[in-house]
Amino acid sequence: MAGGPAAAPLLVDVTGNTHRAEFCIDKLYAPETATGRLGLVEFRAFEMPPHARMSLVQQLLLRALVAWFWRTPYSRPLVRWHTELHDRFMLPY
Predict the structure, then answer these.
(1) Where are the alpha helices (DSSP H) in 12-78?
(2) pLDDT in tens, 32-84
């Protein structure tokens, strides 16, 4: 998998499917196909906004976060939440 073993948990869901992960890099660079060289990283944690203004806000948020972490990289260890976030905030919905 692209990104190496350290990045693998961030790039797949619990079943190993890359298309349901929060960050999908399948189109970043896959040399075996022409469509795999698009240079895209998909942020699948975001839903499609209902109108253009909300889309603009999402894009500005992502750009601000990328600029912030580019300047000051996050160096602390990541937290393994497992199902706690879903269990705490999404249940029983």
Answers:
(1) 52-71
(2) 777 666 777 777 777 778 888 988 998 898 889 889 989 998 898 988 888 88
Q: In whole angstroms, what is the distance from residue 16 CA to residue 49 CA?
A: 27
Q: Which residues of 63-90 are buried (b: 16+ CB within 10 A; e: fewer)?
A: eeeeeeeeeeeeeeeeeeeeeeeeeeee
The closest alpha carbon to 12, from 4, 2, 22, belongs to: 22
Among 37, 89, 38, 43, residue whose Cα is nearest residue 65: 43
Structure-block tokens of residue 46 = 């975001």
